[in-house]
Each structure stands twice: as C-alpha cells, then as structure tokens.
Write a structure and sequence with these properties.
mainly alpha; 86 residues
C-alpha cells in the first residue's frame, strides 16, 4: 500500500499531521535521474508554497515541459492509463 509522500513512513495520518507537513515541511522532490530536467522544473513551479512565487496557469502552459506537446496523443495516452486502472 502506498503512503502520503509528505509524511514520514509509519506516521499516523491525521488531518493535523498532514496540514503541518504541507505548511512547514520540506517540499517533496523527484529522485535524481527519475525525471527530465523539464519535468523537475515544472513540478517545482507547481509546488511553490508562496502563491506569489508559484507559476500561473499561463506560465505553466508556456513551460517547456508542456508547450509544444501533441495534446491529442497525450489525451489518448491518458485515456489508456485511466482505462487500465478502472
């Protein structure tokens, strides 16, 4: 079974523990080599706690990880993944 990435392994999941982890804990990071630099940058832009530093929707859509992608093939791939899990 999985676990919440913001809580240490074995810590009881409570609303208060999760809120403290989100507000005061370190941001989760993708393991080195597990993702492209573009994806790492995109995730970092999404997870900024300070809303003034967080990327806007327009900035995220213009991000190199998203911009120029073939939307139709991505949508098809996403549908396949969802169908396999349902």
């Amino acid at each position: 079974m999985g676990r919440y990435p913001l809580l240490p392994a074995g810590q009881e999941l409570t609303w208060a523990a999760l809120m403290c982890a989100i507000c005061f804990g370190e941001l989760p990071a993708l393991p080195d080599g597990a993702a492209s630099p573009e994806l790492r940058s995109f995730v970092s832009a999404c997870l900024q706690k300070d809303h003034r530093k967080r990327a806007s929707v327009a900035e995220l859509l213009a991000h190199p990880f998203v911009a120029g992608r073939d939307v139709a093939s991505a949508r098809h791939a996403l549908r396949e993944v969802i169908a396999q899990r349902v």
